[in-house]
Amino acid sequence: MELSQRDITYCKNVGAKRADILRTELKVYTAMDLLRQYPYKYIDRSRFYRIAELDDEDTYVQIIGEVTEWHTIGIGRAQRLSATFFDGTHQCELVWFQGVQYVKLKQGVKYLLFGKPSRFNHTYNFVHPELTPWSKVTPEMTQGLEPYYNTTEKMKKVGMNSKAIRSIIAELMPDLKLGVPDTIGADVLQKYHLMSLTQALVSVHFPANTQALQQARLRLKFEELFYLQLHILRQMKRREQYDGFPMPLVGTRFHALYKSLPFELTNAQKRVIREIHDDLKSGKQMNRLLQGDVGSGKTLVALLCCLLAVDNGYQTCIMAPTEILANQHYETLKKFLEPLNNQLPITNHQSSHVSVALLTGSTTAKNRAPIHQGLLNGTIHILVGTHALLEDDVQWKKLGFVVIDEQHRFGVAQRAKLWSKSGASSADSSLPAPPPHILVMTATPIPRTLAMTVYGDLRVSVIDELPPGRKPVQTIHYSIQRRAQVYAFMRKQIEEGRQIYVVYPLIKENEKMDLLDLQNGYNELCEAFPQFRISMLHGQMKAADKDQQMQRFVSGETQILVSTTVIEVGVNVPNATVMIIQNAERFGLSQLHQLRGRVGRGAEQSFCLLLTDFELSKDTRKRMDIMVATNDGFRIAEADLQLRGAGDLDGTRQSGLPIDLQIANLATDGQILTIARQAASDILDQDPLLEDQMNRIYKYQLDLLRVSQSYNWGEIS
Ligand code: ADP
Ligand code: MG
Q1: Which residue among 259, 399, 654, 709 sits deepest, i.e. has the most Cβ atoms within 10 Å of its Cβ?
Q2: Which SS3 state, helix, strand or coil, does residue 357 take?
């Protein structure tokens, strides 16, 4: 029977009880499922180390030598056995804390030591090593790479440790070696020099040597990333079959705003507007990601594109992740549009007028009614808001263009909902209306590999240029002991007329404590600066209060804004030149970068002060160093990916990948990803719906994946 059909219960060394646990713990139902549980590490048992060679990076090692001396310390439960191990030139320490009475050591005997060294003072020590007399060491013990499998507590209770898994898998090898059907076509395997699935599975579990293992892992990573890309690209192709509202016209409103701007657009802004307009006039529905570092001027690009849509007779909306940001966008848009809306009727009032409305969670029922009305009868051109925009009673006459700002705050589900918000133009057509064009904007730069997966179904535009005249923010890392210095600096900046943000971290698990931190910080600043006015802002405040505090800062009435991370995204106060981040060690890199992006928006030199404890972990120190070293969001994002691994990045946790990755790693396998994407795209170019006989296998595999990964598959069809 095929391994993919063989019930795990009937595999050797399993049985009903273990099978049950394998099913519930690892979702392993068949022999093939078990073969798809790849080892998470290997230990090279053919290599012998010298003590002098050990370094801090070593995991498990084996060393030949003898035990020269040992003694027990303490009594009863606290008893500890310490021994000195000597390899002929150097020595290290062996320690046992438990079962000391079972450790039998002999002098003058050659031992094989196996364990994990850790550095302590100037020597290495091994806690609970395996110590085997050399005379008992069999050749198998020191042969090749020993695989280690993930197991859970429940598995261990029934004796299923890594060794046991290994022996179950060993029993499957003869059948596996007869061959299993491949999941990737022979042409692709050949083109990219990849192992067959059979060979890869054999080698991943029982590698003959490191080369074979590497080849096997390469093939399995490729397979994973290939299917991920095949899925994403097929989605994209499906979407691109949709018609979109055609918006060929570059009309009066667009031109009027363009002409009224007090500055020239950057070349990057012009380029992305052209890219977006090309999509809008193509007749196909647009799904585009606009990436641009903080302060690169995305809002204006969004507004100009909205006007393209309005000029073509459509309504538009801009969705922001927070009320503060929605309010700010609303104010910004109104200001930009003033010259258009104040034009006298003689100058063609009809076509240059643009009406903007604001809808958030705190919009009262009384104020909602006219908005709903205006959306239905088409008198509102641009609706700015929070996810309140997604509510069912928000109905449009002709929604044609949607902007989602700071997408990393929204999940894929919300994007899908906007997609399905019909442009409701059924009045002039019996056909269902196409979905609106969608522009997703983010200031969280995403490394290429991630963009290809998380946003792999979007076309990407990048604003890679800041408006001229911006001075890069100077970043300084201080330990909190130097408060006096920080205060002196703050005083000087305020006396020069500048404003300052002071941000405190917020950990959701303990909001009370966090707010206390914030309140204390506020009190301290009030004491230190009785001559200045200070606003305070946090997520627990009522929207109206938040708005009022923000407004006082925006208007310049207060000089300092003490806040939690509610100001993290989007807030724009050009006169604020100092960003002070308290407990900077508690923030991730991309968050720090976002916060820093709040300053450096005007002509004055801006500063970012990272305040941390004196003692820092290695990772934290690295994060601070990167922040000090560069202002480049893409470099920071790459570093973030390397430091934290892909699973943990801000933007991805919420979006989720459509397929869980078991062996591939987006942080390190970017090159394989690029090739896998190419391979998938070649296939879809020939056969977008995977209907060819020769591509049947791909369609079948995707169907299987859909079943097993349905929770975040995010299908639209
Ligand atoms: P972000 O990309 O972070 O959303 P914003 O849209 O908030 O950036 O723009 C930051 C500031 O830069 C705003 O005050 C905006 O008016 C200004 N700005 C945008 N484009 C230009 C430009 N081409 N030249 C000068 N200033 C610009
Ligand atoms: Mg913005």
Answers
A1: 399
A2: strand
- Token pair, residue 629, equals 């070293």
Interatomic CA distance for residues 36 and 14, integer angstroms: 17
Tell me which residue has its CA closest to atom 5 in ligand 1: 297
pLDDT, position 495: 95
CB contact at 8 A, 145 and 213? yes
Hey, how many other C-beta atoms are within 10 angstroms of the C-beta on 415? 22
The token pair that represents 497 in the structure block: 């007329």
* Token couple for 167: 């022996």
Q: Could you tell me which of 78, 61, 79 has the C-alpha nearest to residue 70?
A: 79
Rounded CA-CA distance 282/277 in Å is: 8
C-beta 601 within 6 A of ligand 1: yes
CA distance 566 to 537: 8
- Residue 444 in contact with ligand 1 by CB distance below 6 A: no
User: Is residue 445 lining ligand 1, measured as CB closer than 6 Å?
Assistant: no
CA distances from 574 to 325, 499, 601 (A): 15, 9, 5
> Which residue is it, tokens 């001075």?
471
Instruction: Tell me how many degrees the CA angle 553-558-561 measures, rounded to the nearest 5.
Output: 60
Q: CB within 5 A of ion ligand 2: which residues? A: 570
pLDDT value of position 451: 75
DSSP-derived letter for residue 5 is T
Ligand closest to 272 (CA) is 1
CA of 570, nearest ligand number: 2
Cα-to-centroid distance, 469 and ligand 1 (Å): 12
pTM: 0.70
Closest-lying ligand 1 atom to the alpha carbon of residue 574:
14
Widest distance between CA atoms in the chain: 106
Predicted confidence at residue 342, as pLDDT, reads 82
Please state, in angstroms and rounded to a whole number, the distance separating the CA atoms of residues 499 and 629. 24
Alpha-carbon gap, residue 370 to 505, rounded angstroms: 39
Instruction: Tell me the two tokens of residue 481.
Output: 């002991």
Atom of ligand 1 nearest to the CA of 298: 2
Bridge partners, residue 562, by sequence: 502, 536
- What's the pLDDT at 570? 61
Query: Cα of 265 to ligand 1 centre, how many Å?
Result: 9
Residue with tokens 């007399």: 133
Q: Which residues of 499-523 are buried (b: 16+ CB within 10 A; e: fewer)?
A: bbbbbbbbeeeeeeebbebbeebbe
Tokens of 196: 């067959």
Ranges in the chain, pLDDT < 50: 346, 349, 422-429, 648-655, 710-717
Rg, Å, the chain Cα set: 31
> Ligand 1, from 296, 571, 590: best to mutate by most atoms within 8 Å of Cβ?
296
Q: What pLDDT is recorded for position 399?
A: 93
